[in-house]
Write a structure and sequence with these properties.
single chain; mainly beta; five-stranded antiparallel sheet; three-stranded antiparallel sheet; 0% helix
Length: 77
C-alpha cells in the first residue's frame, strides 16, 4: 500500500466544517455519495496521522485522508 495524493473539491460551512464532495484521481472525477464519519486517526498501513474521512463512492465505503492540507487515498502498489 502507498499514498496517492489526489485533488478534492470540498465545501466549508459557516462553522468551518469541511465536507469533501468529489475526488479527482488520475483525471477521473468520483462523486462522494456520503461522508459516513470524520475523525483524527493514524494510518497503520502507509503511515501518517491525519483527518480520516470514511466516505461512500458508488455505494462502496472507503477512506479519504487529509494531512497537513494535502488529501490522499491508499493505493495498492
Amino acid at each position: 500500500m502507498s499514498k496517492k495524493y489526489v485533488k478534492v473539491n470540498i465545501d466549508i460551512n459557516e462553522e468551518g466544517k469541511i465536507t469533501p464532495l468529489r475526488i479527482i484521481y488520475n483525471d477521473t472525477t468520483f462523486l462522494i455519495d456520503k461522508v459516513l464519519e470524520c475523525r483524527m486517526a493514524p494510518n497503520l498501513k502507509v503511515g501518517g496521522l491525519g483527518m480520516r474521512y470514511t466516505i461512500r463512492i458508488n455505494g462502496k465505503p472507503t477512506f479519504l485522508w487529509e494531512e497537513n492540507g494535502r488529501w490522499w487515498v491508499e493505493t495498492k502498489n
